[in-house]
Amino acid sequence: MNERSERVTVENKIPKVIHYCWFGRGPKSPKIQKCIKSWRKHLPDYKLMEWNEDVFNIDSIPYVKQAYEARKYAFVSDYVRLYALYHYGGIYMDTDVEVIQSLDRFLAHEAFSGFEDEVYLQSGTMGAVAGHAWIQELLDYYKDKSFIKDDGTYDMTTNTNIITRICSQWGLVANGQYQVLQNGVVFYPRTYFSPYDYINGGNYRTKDSYTIHHFIQSWLPASVRVRGYFKRIVSRIIGPKGISLMRKVLQNR
Questions:
Q1: How many Cα atoms are found within 13 Å in the side-chain-facing hemisphere of 139?
Q2: Helix, strand, coil content of the chain in percent (nearest 5)
Q3: How far is residue 144's CA from residue 231's CA, in Å, rounded to a whole number?
């Protein structure tokens, strides 16, 4: 028996569909256009589905309606990405995610995602078959949720925080390592989908990196994004370890 006949063909479970959100009807920046171009380059046989006001009912649930009216479109996408995966199956990607090699190997899973760091899960690249119970549970979180709190402020809890908390109930260990939960969802280390440390500027890219989340973070206030920009500049000069050392020095003063 030759090598070719010994190969095992893995059947795809997740369909070759890339979902992404673009609400607010604004123009896509050159950075975002470059990221989408990388999808077409490395995933040429995948169908791209853009979710926007024309294809999704903004009034479907209070959380989405309130977030949209507040022009907090990233929080609108927190729900819509789950809706898309649950009803159609496929892979969801944020528009600031760059693909650097084919994602075909992950189509054999029932559902997958990965870590953003050593503690929290990421949501910029995640996939599932249609109707998966994990996605349904995440959707249910928003069913009776309000984006506007009782005091009139916005609930800016990130979906990475929410997803991590829910997955901990299924046995997720916050260690940043590969693991499969009781519900069958597979999680990969940060090197796979989120090798860029947007807080400290570290780069964890390896041969096992498939996407890079550039974290444009348009949902954050401008003042916060500016601080993050300067932090990344400093990190490139002294490195992530230098940033950690500097923090310890300042804490001990």
A1: 17
A2: 40, 15, 45
A3: 37
Find the radius of gyration of the CA atoms of the chain: 19
Same domain, 64 and 143: yes
Q: Within this chain, do residues 144 and 244 fall inside the same structural domain, yes or no?
A: no
Give the domain range for residue 234: 220-252
How far, in Å, CA of 65 to CA of 23, rounded? Answer: 12
- In this structure, the answer to whether residues 78 and 200 fall within a common structural domain is yes
Could you report the per-residue pLDDT of 173-207, keeping only the tens digit for each?
Answer: 999 999 999 999 999 999 999 998 877 778 899 99
CATH code (residue 66) = 3.90.550
Give domain status of residue 121, yes or no. Answer: yes
Does the pTM of the predicted model rise above 0.90?
A: no
Look at the chain and report how many structural domains it folds into.
2
Question: Do residues 51 and 19 touch, judged by C-beta distance below 8 A?
Answer: yes
- SS3 (DSSP) at 69: helix
